[in-house]
Prior knowledge:
By secondary structure, chain A is an alpha+beta fold. Helix content of chain A is 28%, strand content 17%. In chain A, the strands form three sheets. In chain A, strands 1-10-3-8 form a four-stranded antiparallel sheet. In chain A, strands 2-9-6-7 form a four-stranded antiparallel sheet, with no helix packed on it. Chain A has a two-stranded antiparallel sheet with strand order 4-5. In chain A, helix 2 runs antiparallel to helix 10. Chain B is α/β, with parallel strands linked by helices. Chain B folds into four domains: 1-57 and 75-85, no CATH class; 194-219 and 401-474 and 498-607, Rossmann fold, CATH 3.40.50.1000; 224-242 and 282-327 and 342-367 and 392-399, no CATH class; 612-840, no CATH class. Chain B has a nine-stranded mixed sheet, sandwiched between helices. Chain B has a five-stranded antiparallel sheet with strand order 7-6-10-9-8. In chain B, helix 17 (652-662) packs antiparallel against helix 23 and helix 21 runs antiparallel to helix 26 (813-840). Chain B is elongated, with a radius of gyration of 35 Å. The chains are: A alpha+beta, B alpha/beta. The interface between A and B is large, with 119 and 131 residues.
Amino acid sequence: GGVGLSGGGAAGGGGGAVKTRKPDNTAFKQQxxxxxxxxxxxxxxxxxxxxxxxxxxxxxxxxxxxxxxxREYEIDYTGTEPSSPCNKCLxxxxxxxxxxxxxxxxxxxxxxxxxxxxxYGLSNFYQNHRRYVKSRDDSQLNGDNSSLLNPxxxxxxxxxxxxxxxxxxxxIANSMFNDTLELYRLDNDTxxxxxxxxxxxxxxxxxxxxxxxxxxxxxxLTALFQGTxxxxxxxxxxxxxxSEPDNNGFINEDFIVWMRTAALPTFRKLYRLIERKNNFQxxxxxxxxxxxxxxxxxxxxxxxxxxxxxxxxxWMGGKNPFLGIAYITVGSICxxxxxxxxxxxxxxxxxxxxxxxxx
Amino acid sequence: GEVVCEPPNNKLDKFGGTLYWKEHKYPLSNQxxxxxxxxxxxxxxxxxxxxxxxGRGAAAAARGAGPPLTRVPRPGPDTxxxxxxxxxKFKRTSIDRLMNTLVLWIFGFLVCMGVILAIGNAIWEHxxxxxxxxYLPWPEGVHSAFFSGFLSFWSYIIILNTVVPISLYVSVEIxxxxxxxxxxxxxxxxxxxxxxAAEARTTTLSEELGxxxxxxxxxxxxxxQNVMVFSKCSVNGRSYGERPRGSRGRGAAGPAQxxxxxxxxxxxxxxxxxxxGQRPEPVDFSSNPLADPGFQFWxxxxxxxxxxxxxxxxxxxRLLALCHTxxxxxxxxxxxxxxxxxxxxxxxxxxxxxxxxxxGENMGTVGTAWGWRGRHRDGGDGEDSVGTVGTLLGxxxxxxxxxxxxxxxxxxxxxxxxxxxxLTGDKQETAVNIGYSCKMLTDDMTEVFVVSGRTVxxxxxxxxxxxxxxxxxxxxxxxxxxxxxxxSSKLPSVLEAVAGEYALVINGHSLAHALEADMEVExxxxxxxxxxxxxxxxxxxxxxxxxxxxxxxxxxxxLAIGDGANDVSMIKTAHIGVGISGQEGIQAVLAxxxxxxxxxxxxxxxxxxxxxxxxxxxxxxxxxxxxxFAFTMVHFWFGFFCGFSAQTVYDQYFITLYNIVYTSLPVLxxxxxxxxxxxxxxxxxxxxxxxxxxxxLFNKREFFIxxxxxxxxxxxxxxxxxxxxxxxxxxxxxxxxxxxxxAVTVATSLVIVxxxxxxxxTGFWTAINHFFIWGSLAAYFAILFAMHSDGLFxxxxxxxxxxxxxxxxxxxxxxxxxxxxxxxxxxxPVVALRFLKLHLRPQLSD
Lengths: 359, 846
């Protein structure tokens, strides 16, 4: 401003406020930090696509083959079809006595060579509903005595029954799956029971850390659960779930498995193990089998389905066709993309390298 | 007595009033007016009256004798100067405004999602939930599916609120703070002579520096040094001080220049060093012990004349010596018997023009002093009416040299498609000369239009003629295109593509008309078609009005740069105000957003700091929106599988920490340190600045691309684990698809995918970037395992119920296969698209 509005003169004395310090000549302050500048060049991108393709396709094939080698057999025993033997139990209620039982015969075409895992599966069952998921008291399940007698409010409306605290409280525990499944091999009209192992089906941390029975002077669970009442739907209290003391109360494995809520409305949960006895005989040989069901668990009212699944497993778990197919597909697409990009690179690449920067 | 005068206004050059004093009327004009801050010198006494002193009304004080005569202790808001100073506005960047809009849209989007999910919930509760009540009864107080849906709406608003980037505002401020510090720390913007570093006085505008399209510059003190050096004089018709031809150009840039920064800087901005050509010997003043050793003069003829004792030359110097203050009117003989001693201000340009014309030197002659023998009456403002009585003794030419690097800076900025307008209070001749010397105006230009009409009609006519000439020229050049001309009342890109180079010079009094509401569009249209625009004789308010005009119609980012108090209003009005800390005090600096001491630093501020700042901010914003959408939208998809119950996919701690711990630092590091091209490149190729002006890197389109990418990621993030987990079991036979394992899988894939994505976005991996990116990943796993540990569970069983999930889930090959698959599927298309873009439509910076 050359025109002499010298009003600045009055304030001019403050000019010393301007910083006089010379900035430090450091790489940080001068934005000259050494840096790696990756650029998406043909030399990096194209090989990356090919390598991903070459890695994914074999993995996918491996998974696919593994998955196909897994034996799996599934029976829906909900009984909605009138022809089903379980149709009579369709409208069973929790407290029906005597329990409704039904038997379904089936045939395994192929033998199950290794250990067999027996699952029950439920469909349209919303174990992942927000109100359902939170309706539990982990502190009570961990054996905390004060929570035992005074469960968390999250358990409502299954917190107390007739002024007694419910153990275990909450909607999850209350809705515990309580069908009993038994498996028989039919050998010339004789029913040979197949031994089902009920321990070792829960996560180790759940069994040993997360779930604990209340502690006290006695080992008698009945005494320890004194003052509590059973969940509304249950036929018997939690300390009578099993006869073995290390599988009873809160550390009953069926209970623990049920309490690990599923992420999706269709799920399967491990029910029993069938161990291979010796190396000479398959665990389940091909042939006729019979499944005895004590049908206690009603699902028909909300269109739920119940299944029994027999499966062997591999290094990556049970049957999982999705993963294998997805890997093969993605690998192929990556490979294909690599080829397309390579073509584009060859077609247009030269043009760009010679392109000048207009100035 | 009583003063009747006009109401407070902002016209600096006019005043009208009447003084009633003892039944006499005295007219008051601008001649009787001293503006706030003026200093009277060589005046023994006078009577003063304060008017327009603020809200208190007229007439406050009159003090006699001696400078400072009048001083208003506090700035009155009604004084002419304060009226000229413009209003201080809170400045916000266009990105800020865009961000606010986008955040509002996101809010709308959030509500939409809430509504969709609430409707879903109502339907679900009606169809399924009502029957599922055997296992999950409705909570107390909920009796209808509709009410449940209503509640679920609010639940979803709460869990989906992470889509609204609240932390964005804080992060953006941190980024800008960082960018401002880089400006403060830049040693290439440090002036050793003044010992002043550049200073970012605001931390809110940094990315706007990368989008500037119009620069409004003051002249004196900004383009020039505002150091007046005696350069030439003319005594009795003879001109002294012709500079030898060999030294033209940079001949004067010697150590004598106190304001030059080149002495201190090892390499200046442009990398020019040294002097051009041979410099002839200056006149040797060593015979005079009183001579200023810094002073250089090239014409020995003057010294000769003095030595010979020519009376006129002696008189001339005597006058100069006695009257160093330029005063409009002589009060009394300055102590010398013969009544000599006035110097009139002066702009009379005849001689000055002569000097400019034949020398063509790189200098501006700003002041000419006229010496008169005898008394004279000076009427008017000194420019028009050269006095009538007296003898012209001679004239001096005072040179105000251009600052170092100014023409180069202007050239670079012009190449960067930044239009530079000079708004100066100086006379037209001076302004035009400076325009030539700093290469804004060149002889190659097709035409320089001068608008100096005094009436509305004249101005309109002149503008119209200018436009017609330009249009005629462009028609004759571009005859291939049959372009329909829209009437000029509509705003105007018609003239954008004018062929040839034009310049517009407009005078203050013409500008006053041109800025009136009915002509401003016309003026702007004409001015914008010209390559260079110079406005001279403009008042501070007009400077602001011109800036406002461009802001209003061009929707472009404007930057005003100036050093004096008269630039304050324009500095405040422009999007970005830059103050030069020069000779004129610090008012401009105080009003500015950025300040430094040399005009040439402007190119570094814009092309390097501004450009990077813009780039970083844009990349930052894109990534920020992306990561929030990728994170939050998973809940939306999950809603369809959990009965719209507002169940979260992730563990509550993950939700809390995702934005603050797992993903904040890498993107901040990118936003602070990223560089696409090194600083030298952005100076060498000013075209690199263009994406910022065109707002290409972050706009609504880019925003939608980011959002789309985020949603795409969220879809895969949910449905791939969904596909894998539906029937899968663990390798020990147990169920894989339990809620907690699912949560761990999705969260881990998400963190890995967004980390890979920031890795792709980061173009400049400093050690800090490495540390933050790898550190964030490490922190994620560390915190994950800590949260899922036994110890915390034993202390708070209800809060840390995920105990054991992370180790159990991450030990599963299927989980890692899922994570790997998700990562590749999310990232590969992005890489492919970027590669294609790089190949098919490369940007300049690539």
